[in-house]
Design brief:
Helix content is about 50%, strand content about 10%. It has about 140 residues and is of the alpha/beta class. Strands 1-2-3 form a 3-stranded parallel sheet, with helices on one face.
């Protein structure tokens, strides 16, 4: 099974996360999404990641700090301002997540990304197997 080693201290913000994840999968200059939606699309295949695979996310304490509530708050705010949601339920989801992040409760952006990776196998009905190992 292919192993990908991701250094959680190698980036400073959400944009840097996408760049570094792309490098991990596809080498220097490699693409693996530049938004959460495109990152999720890439997890489902066709962008260099082998299936099945293991992602070993090292130095997670750095990632947790850099992908905190503030990043999730700003991400929700931007999506709401740009009307990047499908329907009223999507708007309500973003609004509630933004309010939680503002109050420093609920998931962080790190948590959202981790859940997205961990849920790929279920969301693909078992067709894509990604194991995520988180190491501080």
């Amino acid at each position: 099974m292919k192993q990908y080693i991701f250094d959680g201290s190698s980036f400073k913000d959400l944009d840097g996360f996408f760049v570094e994840f792309g490098k991990m999968v596809n080498g220097d200059g490699g693409y693996f999404g530049r938004t959460l939606d495109s990152f999720d699309d890439c997890l489902f295949g066709g962008f260099g990641m082998e299936n099945p695979c293991v992602i070993i996310w090292q130095n997670c304490s750095f990632s947790k700090m850099r992908l905190g509530h503030d990043i999730l708050f700003n991400w929700c705010k931007e999506r709401i301002q740009k009307k990047e949601y499908l329907d009223e339920d999507g708007l309500n989801y973003l609004t509630s997540r933004q309010e939680e992040a503002k109050n420093l409760v609920g998931p962080t952006m790190f948590d959202v990304i981790v859940e997205g990776i961990k849920s790929v196998e279920q969301r693909s009905s078992g067709k894509i197997k990604i194991e995520l190992q988180i190491i501080d």
